[in-house]
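are you around this afternoon, could really use another pair of eyes. what follows is a protein written twice so to speak, once as letters and once as structure tokens for the fold. i want to understand how the tokens follow from the sequence so walk me through it. anything you notice is useful, everything is just below.
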Amino acid sequence: MIVLQNVMEKSNLYKVDEFGVKNYNYGVIGFFSLVVFSLLNIILGYVTFLAETSVTNSPVQNYVDALWLMLMSSTTIGFGDVYPITFVGRAAVFIMFILGVGILGFADTNIKNRELRKQNDNILSQNIEIHRKLEKLEEKLESLLSAKK
């Protein structure tokens, strides 16, 4: 995600809103993430296929099984019907698990931050208005109290 963020910042594919929050073009990020996700599944699936099919009693019998294993690992579903038994296969699944969760799990926090900043801005303006009204009330109270003396 850090690499993706650096790429987006260098490509200037974002706009800064009135609160200073960067709003990225998530169509581009989504497409790029899908491409990277697919390539990782294909490449690590192939590595797993090569490592597992040479071993007897491996549940990975063909490339489709290896690709299925990568998809299930990257989405954290993991049905358990296909699993690696070699170190290389397990390492590939581990890498896919970490990277797949990272790619699939990113969220648009800028929208949440923007909403919170707008709420905070509204609260601050309400507080300023309440403070102004309180000052007027204090002035009126002081004038009433001094008039009675």
